[in-house]
Design goal:
It contains 3 helices and no strands. The chain is mostly helical and 199 residues long. α1 packs antiparallel against α2.
Length: 199
């Protein structure tokens, strides 16, 4: 209804204008054909303007509405992109601010790990040194016992050799033969005593 009124109002204005022009022409008398031609040109212009206005009025709102919807959508998307970018920038700033704290935490954790590893290595070293001391003491003790036993055997051999030398230098051949004869008699007696006890 509003569109119809919008179209009819200019048309009525044009018709009134043309009618007024024609009346003025008749009242003045017939002016030249030039004035009439100008009047018809203005009438045609007005009719074309009304027709163009009708089509613009009919199609322009949809076009303008679609275009404004596109523009609003583009603005909304741009605002969303801006918000996302601001959020990412804020996240990046937060990460950058936490980066120093993370590096400090990593350093302190690495230092603590190194201290624990150093303590573990020190404990293992002390245990290895203690084990080596015990093993060395055991080897020294064993070597000492072996050396003492070998020394005793050597001393016993030496004493026997020395005793044998003394005896052989003190014994005359007659005494040696007498000792030997006694040894044989003693051995024979023991042998006979052993046979008697078996029977």
């Amino acid at each position: 209804m509003k569109r119809l009124a919008f179209i009819l109002l200019p048309c009525a204005t044009i018709l009134v204008f043309c009618a007024t022009g024609l009346m003025a022409q008749e009242s003045e008398g017939a002016k030249s054909g030039e004035d009439t031609l100008i009047l018809w040109k203005w009438g045609n212009f007005a009719i074309l303007t009304v027709i163009a206005g009708y089509f613009i009025n009919k199609h322009a709102p949809g076009l303008f509405h679609a275009r404004s919807t596109e523009i609003k959508k583009g603005i909304a998307e741009a605002q969303q992109v801006k918000r996302d970018a601001e959020k990412r920038a804020a996240d990046m700033d937060a990460r950058m601010s936490r980066l120093g704290a993370d590096i400090d935490a990593f350093r302190s954790e690495a230092k603590a790990d190194m201290d624990r590893e150093g303590e573990r290595i020190q404990r293992e070293t002390v245990a290895q040194v203690d084990k080596l001391h015990q093993q060395s003491a055991l080897e020294i003790d064993t070597a000492g016992k072996t050396a003492r036993r070998e020394l005793r055997e050597y001393a016993a051999d030496l004493a026997l050799d020395l005793a044998g030398q003394r005896i052989s230098t003190r014994l005359a051949p007659a005494t040696e033969a007498d000792l030997f004869a006694r040894f044989l008699k003693d051995l024979e007696r023991r042998h006979l005593a052993g046979e008697g006890s078996k029977n």
